[in-house]
Structures are given as structure tokens and as C-alpha cells.
Design goal:
- It is a single chain.
- α8 runs antiparallel to α15, α14 crosses α18 and α15 packs parallel to α18.
- The protein has three domains: about 250 residues, Rossmann fold (3-Layer(aba) Sandwich); about 170 residues, Glucose-6-phosphate isomerase like protein, domain 1 (Rossmann fold, 3-Layer(aba) Sandwich), CATH 3.40.50.10490; about 30 residues, no CATH class.
- The longest helix is centred in the middle third of the chain and has 25 residues.
- The radius of gyration is 24 Å and the shape is globular.
- The chain is about 45% helix and about 10% strand.
- The chain is an alpha/beta fold and about 500 residues long.
- α10 links the parallel β5 and β6.
- The strands form two sheets. The chain has a six-stranded mixed β-sheet, with helices on both faces. It has a five-stranded parallel β-sheet with strand order 4-3-5-6-7, sandwiched between helices.
- Bound molecules: 6-O-phosphono-beta-D-fructofuranose (F6P).
């Protein structure tokens, strides 16, 4: 059974109303999933239990559960780079078959732990504790730490704030340093490769800012790096004492569990960071052991492939009804699009049409309702929506939170059922959505939510037959930018050269 075998199901179901589908006996039990720290409701999806059973068979045929297990064991699941994918192992080294690798992951954790504990000591930096940590990184070295830091605002260590810098616009670093005291600021450069232009240029500028106030030695004491290329960080001038290496097998977009999450371990504190890891571990246990028909991570991968590949809906909207989860869609966007944006399979053969991941976009509810939801309800394209809600009673104690959640519940119903009216007011309905409810916005539930998405990416990759752990597509643009800067213009076309000149890129 492959995804292509499901096309007759999609055709058969294309004009069913979601109201009819909701009435199908057995649906409540089959399409709702209880997982650690969250639940997933997929009853508003456009499929019936026959199609769902066929999708489940696809998961088995594509060996999706086996792929999840292979990732956790540390097998070479990234064949184009000949590497394992170690994100699950970072939160649970015991799962690895390679004991030496497990030891290295534990050592890396011990080092970041000791560093983070020392940071808040009153004499951490020449007689004062660190008050601000400036995380310089981009892509996976930025989006994850930034998203988690925002989401877990209620759990931060008092007296130590984190700021994040990713963009080459000098204003980005300026803003992160605004009001900072160089004496009490730690700059952390996070770059797996330690070759990323944005990060290295911003790192240099931040070092210069520290040096101007404290001299070279003072700046060096306040400058640290997390990287899989410690030799390059040392060559850059980072004191080896403050270089926190991680393994090549940790992908940037999967790296918050590794030393690349150091700004989180520091600013949330080790206990809260451990709770984040524990939530992710609980989801790992679920993804690895729950049967396919009760496995939320596998179900999520299956439904996303159903919408993308079988129903040919190329995009998905993530609507997080939580102010502090505002950055979650951007985080998932990289996780999914950099992992699943492929056109060839594992052996380099072209993938079948629509066998790559969806375009992921979204934002914060209910704000989205006042910007893009008109398009979702009455536009000509269906974009399935993932609603994310906070389900705790404490949150709902405030009438605004109750109103927020009422909006969330209403939107799913409106997308499903629409409304009959005159031509302008009528809403066709029939549009798919899922709802995830976090037990509360806690380190555990956030860890579980992220881990669920990591596993669901593995499931989709297994179904499509692609490698979710490389990202060669990002290289060409970087090479061309280097060529423009270095004056090696042979590979550039006229408009690119004109633009570089117009924008004063070179003297
Ligand atoms: O642009 C792609 C990318 O390589 C991402 O995969 C990665 O998260 C980001 O750049 C940053 O890379 P690095 O951590 O090596 O600086």
C-alpha cells in the first residue's frame, strides 16, 4: 500500500460533507489521540475510517515506525551525509547502540550544565553574575532557542535575560545589545558549521562591542560558542574553555536538545531545561511504543501526507491560540520545510508528484482571524489548519482566555460546516482542520509538542521516500552571495550584478 493507492479514497470522499463524516460510527475513538502532555483531534479531517485504515497500512508498508526507531538508535538515517540524526539521542543517550557516542552526548551535557550553573554565581564575570546572554545564530541555531525562550517566559531564571540575533541588518545586533552592560553580558555564537556568514559577521561585531569596553581579554571571557566545528571556533578566537561542541549528527533544525540550546539551559535554568527534555522524552516513548492506530506522532505524519500528497493541498496553516507560542509556526516552518522540501528520493531518483512536505505558515490566534482567515474561509484554495490550544483550567480562569478558546473552537466548526446565505455571505465549509490541546503551556508540553513534530517529519519522509536530514538546496544561494562579495562574478547573471552595484555591495 502506497500513498498513490489512496487516490480512489480521496476521490470517493471529495464531496462528502464534514458533518456526514463526523457522524460515522467509531470516528471519535479512531481519530482522537491521547499522548503525553497533549491530545490531538483529527475528526474534522476529510477522510473516513476506511481511508484512515488504508493510510495506516501505508505507514506499515513504508516502515515509518521502524524509521522512528532507527533515528532513536542512532542508525545512519542520513545517507547522503553518512550520519545518524542524534536529536532523540541528545535527550536520551541510553537509546543509542553506539556506547561511545552516548558517552560523548553525556559529556557535552555535563559541560553545558556546569557552565550554566556557574553563570549565575555572583562572581561569574569579574565580580558579577551574567545578566544578559546574546545568542547569535540563524536558522536552526536561532529559531528553536528563540521560540522556546518566548514560550516559556513564565519559567525563566530571574535576573538573566536572553536576546537573539540572526539577521545581517546591523540593527538586529544593535537591538539585542541595547541597554546591555558589557561587564555582565555573555555573547554565545551558535553555529553547527561555524561557517555561516550571518553568524560570523554578527559574532565579530559583538566581539568588537565587548572589546571596545573591556579590552581583548575581557571580551574573550564573555564570548562562548556552541558548534560541531570546535576547531573553527578556536580559529575564530573563542577560548576552548568556552567552546561547547556537539555532534555532526545533530541537525541544526533539530538542535535545541544539544549544546545549541545553551542559551535556553542558561536562561531557563537547568531544572526547567530538563523538564523540556523530559516532555520530549515522554513523546519519544509514545512515538516509539504506541501502536500505529493510537500513535499521535504517526497519525500526525499520516494526516499531513494525506492532505499534501493524496488531496494535493500544498500548504498547511498553524494557528497557535497562545500569545507565547507566536514563534511556533516559524519554528515548524524550518523543521518541516527544510526537512521535507525535496524532489529526489534516497537514491537520487525523482520523487512522485506531491511527495514533498507542505508549505507551512501561520501565526497567532485570534490575530490570524483578523488577517488571513477571510482567505481560509472564502478563498478558492483549501489550506488545512492546525489549531493549537492551551487546555488548562488556570489559563481559562481569565475571561479573555475563555474568549480566546471560544474563538478557536468556533473557527474549526466554521471551516468544517460553513454557512448557507447569499452569494457574498455564504461559506462553503468542508475545509479540514485538526486541533492539538496542550495540557498547559509548560516545559513538558512544549518539549512533547516539538518532539511530536520531529517524529511526524520522520513519518512523512518515510512515506515520501526522501531524506529529512540533509538540506543541500540552501547552498547555491550562499555560494552566489559569496561570489558577489568576493568579486568572482562569472556565475552571476546581469540582474544580480546590477542589483549588487545598485545596493552598494562592493566599493
Ligand atoms: O541555511 C541552512 C542552514 O544550514 C540551516 O540548516 C541551519 O540551521 C542554518 O543554516 C545555520 O547553520 P549553522 O548552525 O551551521 O550556522
Amino acid at each position: 500500500m502506497t500513498l498513490a493507492d489512496l487516490n480512489p479514497h480521496a476521490a470517493r470522499l471529495s464531496d462528502h460533507s464534514i458533518a456526514d463524516l463526523l457522524a460515522e460510527p467509531g470516528r471519535d475513538a479512531a481519530l482522537q489521540f491521547a499522548a503525553p502532555h497533549l491530545s490531538l483531534d483529527m475528526r474534522r479531517q476529510r477522510l473516513d475510517l476506511k481511508a484512515w485504515a488504508a493510510l495506516g497500512a501505508c505507514a506499515g508498508a513504508a516502515e515509518a515506525p521502524g524509521f522512528i526507531a532507527a533515528v532513536a538508535r542512532g542508525d545512519i538515517v542520513n545517507p547522503t551525509e553518512n550520519r545518524p540524526a542524534l536529536h532523540v539521542a541528545c535527550r536520551n543517550p541510553d537509546r543509542l547502540t553506539d556506547a561511545a557516542m552516548a558517552g560523548r552526548l553525556r559529556d557535552a551535557r555535563r559541560r553545558t550544565r556546569a557552565f550554566c550553573e556557574a553563570l549565575i554565581a555572583p562572581d561569574a564575570l569579574d565580580g558579577s553574575a551574567v545578566r544578559r546572554i546574546v545568542n547569535i545564530g540563524i536558522g536552526g541555531s536561532d529559531l528553536g532557542p528563540r521560540m522556546v525562550y518566548d514560550a516559556l517566559k513564565a519559567f525563566r531564571r530571574p535576573g538573566l535575560e536572553a536576546r537573539f540575533v540572526s539577521n545581517l541588518d546591523p540593527a538586529d545586533l544593535d537591538d539585542a545589545l541595547e541597554g546591555a552592560d558589557p561587564e555582565t553580558t555573555l555573547v554565545l555564537v551558535v553555529s553547527k558549521s561555524f561557517t555561516t556568514q550571518e553568524t560570523l559577521l554578527n559574532g565579530r561585531a559583538a566581539h568588537a562591542w565587548l572589546s571596545a569596553a573591556l579590552g581583548e581579554a575581557g571580551a574573550n571571557r564573555r564570548f562562548a560558542a556552541a558548534t560541531a566545528a570546535p576547531d573553527k571556533a578556536a580559529a575564530f578566537g573563542v577560548d576552548p574553555e568556552r567552546i561547547f561542541p556537539f555532534e555532526e549528527g545533530v541537525g541544526g533544525r533539530y538542535s535545541i536538545w544539544s549544546p545549541a540550546g545553551l542559551s535556553l539551559e542558561a536562561s531557563l535554568g537547568p531544572d526547567v531545561y530538563d523538564r523540556l527534555l523530559a516532555g520530549a522524552r515522554a513523546m519519544d516513548d509514545h512515538a516509539l511504543s504506541a501502536p500505529v492506530d493510537a500513535n499521535a506522532a504517526i497519525a500526525k505524519g499520516l494526516i499531513d501526507a494525506w492532505n499534501r500528497t493524496v488531496r494535493r493541498r500544498p500548504a498547511r496553516c498553524v494557528a497557535a491560540y497562545s500569545s507565547r507560542l507566536e514563534r511556533l509556526p516559524a519554528y515548524l516552518q524550518q523543521l518541516e520545510m527544510e526537512s521535507l522540501g525535496k524532489s529526489v528520493d534516497l537514491s537520487g531518483e525523482p520523487l512522485s508528484p506531491a511527495h514533498s512536505g507542505a508549505l507551512v505558515w501561520g501565526g497567532r490566534g485570534s490575530d490570524l482571524q483578523h488577517s488571513v482567515f477571510q482567505w481560509l474561509h472564502q478563498g478558492q484554495d483549501e489550506v488545512p489548519v492546525d489549531f493549537i490550544a492551551l487546555g488548562d483550567k488556570a489559563f481559562a480562569a481569565d475571561e479573555r482566555a475563555r474568549a480566546l478558546n471560544a474563538n478557536l473552537a468556533a473557527q474549526g466548526a466554521a471551516l468544517s460546516h460553513g454557512r448557507e446565505s447569499d452569494a457574498h455571505r455564504a461559506i462553503a465549509g468542508g475545509r479540514a482542520s485538526s486541533t492539538m490541546v496542550l495540557e498547559a503551556l509548560t516545559p513538558e508540553s512544549l518539549g512533547a509538542l516539538v518532539a511530536l513534530h520531529e517524529h511526524k517529519v520522520s513519518v512523512e519522509a518515510a512515506l515520501y521516500g526522501s531524506n529529512p536530514f540533509d538540506q543541500y538546496g540552501v547552498e547555491l544561494g550562499k555560494d552566489l552571495a559569496r561570489a558577489i562579495l568576493s568579486g568572482d562574478e562569472g556565475s552571476l547573471d546581469g540582474p544580480a550584478l546590477e542589483l549588487a552595484q545598485r545596493l552598494y555591495v562592493r566599493d
